[in-house]
Write a structure and sequence with these properties.
single chain; Cathepsin B, Chain A; 463 residues; Helix Hairpins; three-stranded mixed sheet; alpha+beta; seven-stranded mixed sheet
């Protein structure tokens, strides 16, 4: 195994230094020729856009703006790769985003000081597991890790970290690897957590304990947007846990002990440009200190005298090492690189799962929200006027969250906890001092009820 890893690293280094003759064969997504002229850069941008399904509207020069950001990112990536580092950067689905946009869109962890954890008897501090741990472990090789998932344009990382940890302990305890539902957590775990606008793994563990279990991914599939809670699927309860434990912040040795027994939910600071463009190798920084992203540690190992954690992300398999990042450990810093040692927890399972109930029956459709006599939105949305004439709203749009703030441009909306619209930059801010916040949502057209329209028209004609 070690020989295979060493050979792979040597080959990767050779390719990195020499690159490839054509960008489609390069592990970093580009070749030296691509940097030689504007024409080649534009061709690379088109090829990259086709690969990742990027489509830009023709308004306001959006394509040209994205091309400019793409070029800046590519030059940043290339400059890093020409240095002497233990990891390399590459093109991925985030390559047309500025780092500010990236930081605002894909992070949904709300740490304890901002998003209070739910505490009760099942939230127990870790009390030690092993007197000795193996030098390395990879739960992927033991069949305890599901395929890499993609949270999409939703800050639901906390839900993916939660399900990943439960999927792992369920496999270890029961022998069954079952992909679990992040959507159930987004829709139903709303006492403290807030769907795509953020949450905390400990809260989600507690919700599952109190709910008596969690449904499967196949029965309650992911939509990348918070919706109404499907009560039938919430009550399916395919996999159960008995509680969860937290690891003292900054205790890397205890975190290692826990990972030696099962996959563990952790939080990191992941909004930096190098994380955005990470493509492979042992990541050694830079990182900030304030955690904002929930991920899953599925193992640990060493390479070229660098100890590292094996971390499963939720940005799809096109990012990093097929969806994973290796983050250096044993740095000598208490909080660990990217603060990975500060907010770790894992589920406890001691009992069997209940009999599988099978596919859930369809749940009743929640009543639509009426914007006026003729326009309606789904119950989980907010009505926002899209065309205002004087004091009369001529047309309505639907914002894909409840209790949203409708922006003055009549196109966007913001979460209630980020009520200040900065739509030119596409951000929603908590206060005017913030430079970037969470992403602004674009409203979709409301449904026009023609039946009501003709009824009202008929009444006016015949009265």
């Amino acid at each position: 195994m070690a020989g295979v890893v060493l050979i792979s690293l040597i080959l990767a280094t050779i390719i990195l230094n020499a690159f490839a003759s054509a960008s489609q064969f390069s592990i970093v997504g580009y070749s030296p020729e691509d940097l030689a002229s504007e024409g080649r850069l534009s061709e690379l941008f088109e090829d990259w856009g086709s690969r990742y399904g990027k489509v830009y509207n023709g308004l306001g020069g959006e394509r040209d703006r994205r091309l400019g950001i793409f070029k800046e990112n590519l030059l940043y990536i290339d400059a890093h790769n020409r240095g002497n580092h233990s990891y390399w950067l590459g093109l991925n689905q985030f390559s047309d985003l500025s780092n500010e946009e990236f930081g605002a869109r894909f992070f949904g962890l709300r740490p304890v000081d901002e998003y209070a954890a739910v505490h009760d008897g099942s939230n127990m501090q870790h009390d030690g597991l092993l007197s000795a741990v193996p030098d390395s472990i990879d739960w992927r090789q033991k069949g305890a890790v599901t395929a890499v998932k993609n949270q999409g344009n939703c800050g639901g990382c906390w839900a993916f970290s939660t399900t990943g940890a439960i999927e792992g302990i369920n496999k270890i305890f029961s022998g069954d690897l079952i992909s679990l539902s992040e959507q159930e957590l987004l829709d139903c775990d709303t006492r403290v957590d807030n769907g795509c606008n953020g949450g905390l793994m400990q809260n989600a563990f507690q919700f599952i304990v109190e709910n008596g279990g969690i449904d499967t991914e196949s029965d309650y599939p992911y939509k990348a947007v918070q919706s109404f809670c499907d009560s039938n699927k919430k009550n399916a309860r395919v996999v159960v846990i008995d509680g969860y434990k937290t690891i003292p912040g900054g205790d890397e040795n205890t975190l290692k002990q826990a990972v030696a027994t099962q996959p563990v939910s952790v939080a990191i600071e992941g909004a930096g440009a190098n994380i955005q463009h990470y493509a492979g190798g042992v990541y050694t920084g830079p990182c900030g200190e304030k955690v904002n992203h929930g991920v899953l540690v599925v193992g640990y190992d060493s390479e070229n005298a660098l100890d590292y954690w094996i971390v499963k992300n939720s940005w799809g398999a096109a990012w990093g090492e097929a969806g994973y990042v290796r983050i250096r450990r044993n740095t000598g810093v208490t909080q660990g690189l990217c603060s990975i040692n500060t907010l770790a927890s894992y589920p406890v399972k001691t009992g069997p799962n209940p009999p599988n109930p099978g596919p859930s029956p369809p749940s009743p459709t929640a009543p639509e929200q009426m914007c006026d006599n003729y326009h309606s939105c789904p119950s989980s949305h907010t009505c926002c006027c899209s065309v205002l004439v004087g004091s009369w709203c001529l047309s309505w749009g639907c914002c894909s969250m409840q209790s949203a703030v409708c922006c003055p441009d009549h196109k966007h909306c913001c979460p209630g906890d980020h009520p200040i619209c900065s739509t030119q930059q596409g951000f929603c801010l908590k206060n005017l001092q913030e430079k970037t916040g969470t992403k602004a949502y674009v409203s979709t057209p409301a449904t026009f009820n023609w039946i009501n329209f003709w009824k009202q028209l008929g009444r006016k004609v015949f009265i």
